[in-house]
Amino acid sequence: MYQFRGITASGGVVVGPVAQIDHGTTGLHRIVGDPFRERALYEAAIVLAKDELRRLQQHARGQDADILTFQIALLEDESFTNEIGDYIAAGAGSAAAVERAEQIFTGRLQNVDNDYIRERSVDVCDACRRVVNILDGRPRRHLHLTKPCILVADQFFPSDLFTLDRRMILGLASEKDSATSHAAILARSMGVPAVAQLGEGVANLAADHRAIVDGERGVLVVEPTASHLAEADRKRAFLRRQKEQHKENPVVAMPSVTTDGVPFKLFTTGTLTTPSDITEGLRGGAEGVGLVRTESVILEEVSEQQQYERYVQLLAAAEGTPLAIRAVDSGADDDAPWSREIKGRLDGAMLCRPQILALLRAGTEGDLRVLLPMIPDADAWRACMAEVEDCKAELTARGVSFRKDLPFGCVVDIPSAALMAEEILENGAMFFAIDVDDLTRYTCGLSRNDEGYRADTTAVLRLVSCVVRAAEARDVPVYLNGITTAELPAIPALLRKGGVRRFCTEKALLIPLKTTLMTVRAEE
Asked: 2-23 in b/e burial notation, b at 16+ Cβ within 10 A?
């Protein structure tokens, strides 16, 4: 079993065989002729490439047709042609000249401060690869699916998907694509799960195996175990049930109270790349966003400005409700944030400076809160707050506006954080988010693959109660997150014995969780 974490491109969960779209390796066995011959070969290849694109265009509609029109226009563009011609005249081979032009033009698009335009860089790659393959004499065979499959690729080019029978596509998994790529947009329009940014080599490893695409968590599981398959089945059942429910489900409009009249609150979760999940969660009865995962900004080293823009988009989707973002989030629920690699990237600091700078700036745009994971004690909390103050000083020196009183809270994901809750509050934590999944695993010494464990064990309940009491004594908000399908049966005990009154879960579980809480008594 192999598990890879990326980002969500399209929601849903699917299990099936994997087929790979392999773009192969270019540049093998090239023989470069004189510039006149290379120029003639290039011009012939352009004619053939445009002819292929026009034939595809005859069967395309909507955005697909627009993409093909863009590719044809690129191949006819004077600046594109001149760039290649000049390199050929300097002695380069025609294929190498096209590859160089591809790098130049994609680089220009990727530096544009607009998501839509940046994503057009893949169209440049698609068109150029077609020309290079013609010049290299590589066969342009399209994948022929004989059964429904999950498709994997290093990166999906638009033309990869144009010729496929879309009824045969169960899901998509990509090493490089983003949530705004053509493949992601296509997956959402088809209603199939998709994950992206899984990392180099994943497509080769997954090819011809069985896999799970979990578009809710941004995860690809290759050769899943029985427990993974059972969990996927449960998730799919919940998602089907949610789709079958009317948009105006009567449960959404009902007051959030237990059978003995104790009120509770529900919050939803999201990721940095799926503001639509936030919107849907709020429509499903959530009163805010209790957790936004931000793994990609750490692992991809996203710039401060790009992060700021994404956080502002999320705040707009939250529509004025509270929105909590988990910082330093390289995979906090997978034991990764303080690994040697991440520590090396942070260079001895506990926080990722560009992320904190971006969050402080975005705090002026809405009700933003920041969560810090893996805080073992008050000393670690003070160290983090010292770094925050350094970031505030930098923004002041730069003359950049920011929210000076941005609330910072602590994720209670390890037992020591629960035991030291009172001391952490004394040092300025403004709220708590108890990650019940991680806290249970760390408390009970379980691996992520262990089955049958429950979050309502006595040890976990005592730790949760300890946090709740400390928070209530100082009138500080505390809520439970990390609630998955497996944790649902334990929630009533956490309500009754743990004293929890606020709960945060993914949008698919909001109605089942609310239904559960409405049918139990809060008091012993």
From this structure: ebbbbbbbbbbbbbbebbbbeb
Residue 75 reports pLDDT greater than 60: yes
Tell me the C-alpha distance between 87 and 35, whole Å. 9
Q: What is the pLDDT of residue 379?
A: 93
Q: Which of 443, 77, 483 is nearest to 264 (CA)?
A: 483
299 CB burial (10 A radius; 0-12, 13-18, 19+)? buried
What pLDDT was estimated at residue 360?
Answer: 96
Determine contact, residues 104/124, Cβ cutoff 8 Å.
no
What pLDDT score does 453 carry? 65
Is the pLDDT reported for residue 383 higher than 60?
Answer: yes
- Per-residue model confidence (pLDDT) at position 335: 45
* Distance between first and last Cα of the chain: 43
C-alpha 435/C-alpha 431 separation (Å) is 13
Residue 42 in tokens: 């290039």
Question: Which stretch of DSSP H or E encloses residue 503?
Answer: strand 502-505
CA 356 to chain centre: 19
Can you tell me the distance from the alpha carbon of 431 to that of 323, in angstroms, rounded to the nearest whole number?
A: 13
3-state secondary structure 364-383: HHCCEEEEECCCCCHHHHHH
Taking Cα atoms as reference points, which of 10, 509, 523 lies closest to residue 237?
509
Mean pLDDT of 22-29: 67
- For the question of whether the overall pTM of this predicted structure is more than 0.70, the answer is no
Where on the phi/psi map is residue 445: left (φ > 0), alpha (ψ -120 to 50), or beta? left
The pLDDT of residue 114: 60
